[in-house]
Amino acid sequence: MLNIAHQQLGHLVVIVDHNGGATIGHLDKIDGVNDGPRLDSIVDKFKSFGFLAFPTDGHDIKAMWGRFKVWIERKCPQYAAPVALVCDTVKGKGIKSMEDGSFFPTHYRLPMGADLEKALKNLGMDAVEFKTEVGGENVGY
Prior knowledge:
By secondary structure, this protein is α/β, with parallel strands linked by helices. The chain has two domains: about 1-90, no CATH class; about 95-140, no CATH class. Helices cover about 35% and strands about 15% of the residues. The protein has a three-stranded parallel sheet with strand order 1-5-4, with helices on both faces. Strands 2-3 form a two-stranded antiparallel sheet. The radius of gyration is 19 Å and the shape is elongated. The termini are far apart.
């Protein structure tokens, strides 16, 4: 990251999905032995490396587009600081069992069977319609 800022790669935008989780556990809260390391403010870390860094609601497309517009409309971006959009998100947004973390203790679990049907219901979708749209009888079951 330091070299990117040093080279003034102002045409570069880094987008970070900041949901507090990682393959090793939670990053924002330390609950167990598999959690960590604590990353504190990622925005501040990018700023310390010379980036223009913006926290953004990763579920708000208008807010994200507003941040992109700032980058697009800059004068001479090739000689400016690179940009980091830190998009605060909730893993499994819109599906209760996934948002509260009870379904996704890690990144490696896929919804199948009854879990998939509940998830689709939370999103206002029908399981039969989903199977037809996505590709057949073996999807998620």
